[in-house]
Amino acid sequence: MSLGQVLLVAALAVPALGAAVVALLPGDRAARVVGTVAAGLTLLATLPLAVGDRGWTAFGPAPAVRPWHRLDLPWVPALDLRFHLGVDGISYPLVVLTALLTLLCCAYTLWRVPDGGGSGRALVALLLVVEVGILGTFLALDLVLFFVFFEVVLLPMYAIIAGYGGADRRRAAAKFALYTLLGSVLLLVGVYVVVAAAGTADLLALTGGGGLSRGTQLAAFTLLGLAFAVKSPLWPLHSWLPDAHTQAPTVGSVILAGVLLKMGTYGLIRVAVGVAPEGARWAAPVLGVLAVAAIIVGSLVCLAQGELKRLIAYSSVGHMGFVLLGVATLTATGLQAALIGNVAHGVITGLLFFLAGAIKDRAHTGVLAELSGLRETAPRLAGLLGFAAVASLGLPGLAGFWGEAFAVVAAVGRGGPLWTTLGVLAAVGGALTAAYLLRLLRRVTHGPASPAVGRIGPGLAVAEWTAWAPLVLLALAVGLAPTLVLGVAADPVAALVGVLK
After folding, report:
1. CA 393 to chain centre
2. Separation between Cα atoms, residue 74 and residue 145, nearest integer Å
3. Which of 56, 86, 134, 356 would bridge 141 by S-S if both were Cys, CB 3.0 to 4.6 A apart?
4. What whole-number distance in Å separates Cα of residue 187 and Cα of residue 143?
5. How many CB atoms lie within 10 A of CB 467?
């Protein structure tokens, strides 16, 4: 096996073995340390995946794209299923982001374990299992294997919300599970339609349609698109998200917003658009309208929202709307906007949920009306919240700018009355995003300190600085040098657009 193949296996094996060891260790503190080390080793395994053969066949028959590294082994020979893994410029940034956020969350548990009935050891084990499922989803190049990893995430994330969340955690966890199961059923049927019609589950062979008829592609895209829309989430299939975010513990919210939602948008790009391009062209106007509806509705709800974590959760609906608008344009600019928007949202919203958790832990409330004057008692925390908020609203020079701006550019550049209107409405949604985030800062950081905020001290724990600093630096780095994401994704995006023509 080559080094790249070893690293692909290690990216999945290390967290899986780490979860097993953590679950078996008797000491809670020692188990959390071991889990954090496993998450760190996983990150170290993913980083070198960028070094390798970056050859691409930009245009032409499938396979239209060639991964940097591939591992293709028999899995279920009787059914012609293979353990087929690979990484390229579309999946690599999300792989690294997943490994980084998991490491930060595991390290955060060394300092604070959320209240609830579960132990810190169990929480870290669940986080590592979630990491296996998410990384496997991003690395799988076999459609059935993709489905298996996609489903691995469901039960451990349910357990994280139900075991460590807020007062209404069980209802929120059940709602998350029911919506996700709905998406899973649609995904399973879509996978069956594609594999039965094409006679293969190889995503490389299926890219560009894989010989599927137009009718099959329309049916497949409808099923796959709905399945990924639930996970993204796309309005009006989003109602599970605010409850799950509000009730989840801090580390659960960070993983949920940072990378779990990206499974939906990644699947939409890699699987739904790649496998059924005719279906994507047919459904693009509907997807664009729903994406803009998510932007506007999410922003308006945020303007009226009075709870901190719930506001950030609804902001994710709007931000993911920009990602989905970029995908809907089916242009190179739009797909690039979607990919960098995915990464930016994961970094910035992960930071926002870390900060929201820190504020709620100190003030014992998330009601905005009870959180005024944070800069008077905790100026460092208020400053970090201000940085994350202006990054989220798309300030030029920070990571949030590129995805939202170029999604609008892609929509307008697509031309025609519909797409121009969608671009204008998305720009209005961007202005509303700035309005609700500035309202958030005014309500939380300005004015006299409320009684709840008056109890907060100015200091921040070393563990908090350790968990937050990488996200602050990444928000700056991606904002100032977007080529960190766009550079590695340029060739695969060009190849994907080539098979769409």
Report:
1. 18
2. 12
3. 86
4. 10
5. 26
Say how far apart CA 92 and CA 112 lie, in whole Å: 30
How far is residue 345's CA from residue 491's CA, in Å, rounded to a whole number? 22
Predicted TM-score of the model (pTM):
0.89
pLDDT band at 61 (very low <50, low <70, confident <90, very high): very low
Amino acid letter for position 113: V
Render pLDDT for 363-387 as a digit per residue (tens, 0 to 9): 888 788 888 888 888 888 888 999 9
Q: Is the pLDDT of residue 473 over 90?
A: yes
* 8 A C-beta contact, residue 316 and residue 245: yes
The residue type of 279 is G
Q: How far is CA 269 from the centre of its chain?
A: 13
How far apart are the two ends of the chain, measured CA to CA in Å? 36
pLDDT of residue 226 exceeding 70: yes
Sequence-separated (6 or more) residues with CB below 8 Å from residue 26: none
DSSP string over 239-291? THHHHHHHHS-HHHHHHIIIIITHHHHHHIIIIIIHH-HHHHHHHHHHHHHHH
Which residues pair with residue 159 across a beta bridge? Answer: none
Q: How far apart are CA 314 and CA 319, in angstroms?
A: 9
Identify the three-state secondary structure at position 481.
Answer: coil
Q: From CA 361, how far away is CA 98, in angstroms rounded?
A: 25
Task: Please state the separation of Cα 456 from the chain's center in Å.
Answer: 31
Kindly report, residue by residue over 271-311, the tens digit of the pLDDT: 888 888 888 888 889 999 999 999 998 889 888 888 888 88
